[in-house]
Amino acid sequence: MIKLTPSLKRRFSIKLSSYHQSLKPFITDEEDFIDRTVDAFKNYRDSSGGQSIRSRSVKIHGKPIACFPPCSPVFLSKTICREIGDLLFVYKHFSKGNLDAHRACLVQTKYTSGTRKTWSIETGQLCLMTLWPKFSIIKPVKFSKNYSLKPKTLTWATYGFVGPRADSFPFYFSSARILRTYRLQASSRKHLSFTLRSHPMPWDFSAGFLSRFVHALIGENLFIGSNVRILVNDLYKVAKWNPDPPGQFEWRREENEKEGDFGIIEFIVTEQRE
């Protein structure tokens, strides 16, 4: 298990606190949340206790749209198309120049301005993020291949609930966990209503979500999930980033400031004693 050193963990916690403060006054919509998250981790760097951490982020113009066969009888068409998500978090850990931990987490943001902690989830999107039928991507660029993901972790595809009723922070729930709770509704409706519980599990709360992700405790292990890694690498190419092969953790310095609706945030931790 990869862990941040205690001193770097404390410093990263300060960064997360600053990030949460940047979400106030309360975000106005999903796009606002994406913008603030991408901006918060655009050029973050820190080091302590023999480790360093740094991040880069980018926005892709237009959300990736996936098309796939219907997985619920409520859809009459032969093909349904939905956005694949709003944010992609990627974590890489290098030791002695070698990549020895590589994880990713896809987040679909849901916003509400209501007085209750209740969000509406569209069934087709939930089907994509839980069952992952074979799909193709038609936007922002059309990929020639079909993707057949077989994620092994529940936290690969996660919903991030934001808005005034999220108690100052976003809440994160895996889509698979939501489906387990609302299985019947998800198969019989085009939308279902999801209400946050008063005391979510620890990793669901945003104060611990990114910290656990950077500790490689949640997210899909891309060393094992090779099909997921292919998708992540292709999304990097859309962002004009080169996927980093093992042993190469420097990136090109060109700026990519295209406006858009999908954000990629990458964290890299290295051992300074290398």
* Multimerization status: single chain
Main beta-sheet annotation: 8 strands, mixed
Please give the number of β-strands: 13
Structural class: alpha+beta
| N- and C-termini, Cα separation | 18 Å
Mean pLDDT across the residues is 81
The helix fraction, in percent, is: 25-40%
The backbone outline, from C-alpha atoms, is globular
- Uncertain residue segments: 246-260
Write a structural description.
The protein is an alpha+beta fold. The chain has one domain (6-271). The chain has helices at 6-21, 30-40, 123-131, 175-181, 183-188, 206-214, 226-238, and strands at 45-48, 51-60, 65-68, 80-83, 87-95, 98-111, 118-122, 136-139, 157-162, 171-174, 191-195, 220-221, 262-271. Strands 1, 2, 5, 6, 9, 10, 12 and 13 form an eight-stranded mixed sheet that branches. The protein is globular.
Name some characteristics of this structure.
274 residues, alpha+beta, 3-stranded antiparallel beta sheet
Helix and strand layout, with pairings?
Elements: H1 6-21, H2 30-40, E1 45-48, E2 51-60, E3 65-68, E4 80-83, E5 87-95, E6 98-111, E7 118-122, H3 123-131, E8 136-139, E9 157-162, E10 171-174, H4 175-181, H5 183-188, E11 191-195, H6 206-214, E12 220-221, H7 226-238, E13 262-271
Parallel strand pairs: 5-13, 6-9
Antiparallel strand pairs: 1-2, 2-13, 3-4, 3-8, 5-6, 6-12, 7-11, 9-10
